[in-house]
């Protein structure tokens, strides 16, 4: 998905997105954080292909699971 932004993102945005992906990989942030960022960028840069993907919005918003960040894992 990140490849769809390679021409649009500034270097600061690229670094922030890659850092967030690394934090997900290291189990620091939940997947929803990364997906929300990707959805935000898809809207910002009007990337219709990504906006139409079910992966970004698999469920109606009212059925979404609530993310709970546990203290001190």
Looking at how many chains there are and whether they match, the oligomeric state comes to single chain
Structural class: mainly alpha
Q: What is the share of helical residues?
A: 40-55%
The topology string of helices and strands comes to: HHH
Question: What's the helix count?
Answer: 3
Q: What is the CA-based Rg, rounded?
A: 13 Å
Low-pLDDT parts are none
Largest beta sheet, briefly?
none
Which percent band covers the strand fraction?
Answer: under 5%
Mean pLDDT: 84
Tell me the count of domains.
1
Q: In total, how many beta strands?
A: 0
The N- to C-terminal Cα distance equals 29 Å
Principal-axis shape: flat
Walk me through the structure.
With 73 residues, the protein is mainly α. The protein has one domain. The chain has 3 helices and no strands. The chain has helices at 11-25, 31-44, 48-51. Helix 1 (11-25) runs antiparallel to helix 2 (31-44). The chain is flat, with a radius of gyration of 13 Å. The model has no long low-confidence stretch (mean pLDDT 84).
Quick description:
The protein is 45% helix and 0% strand. It is mostly helical.
Detail the topology: elements first, then pairings.
Blueprint: H1 11-25, H2 31-44, H3 48-51
Helix pairs in contact: 1-2
Descriptive tags:
mainly alpha, 73 residues, 45% helix, 3 helices
């Amino acid at each position: 998905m990140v490849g769809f932004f390679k021409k649009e993102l500034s270097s600061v945005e690229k670094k922030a997105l890659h850092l967030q992906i690394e934090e997900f990989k290291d189990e620091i942030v939940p997947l929803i954080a990364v997906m929300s960022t990707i959805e935000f960028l898809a809207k910002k840069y009007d990337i219709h292909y990504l906006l139409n993907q079910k992966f970004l919005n698999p469920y109606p918003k009212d059925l979404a699971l609530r993310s709970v960040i546990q203290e001190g894992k």
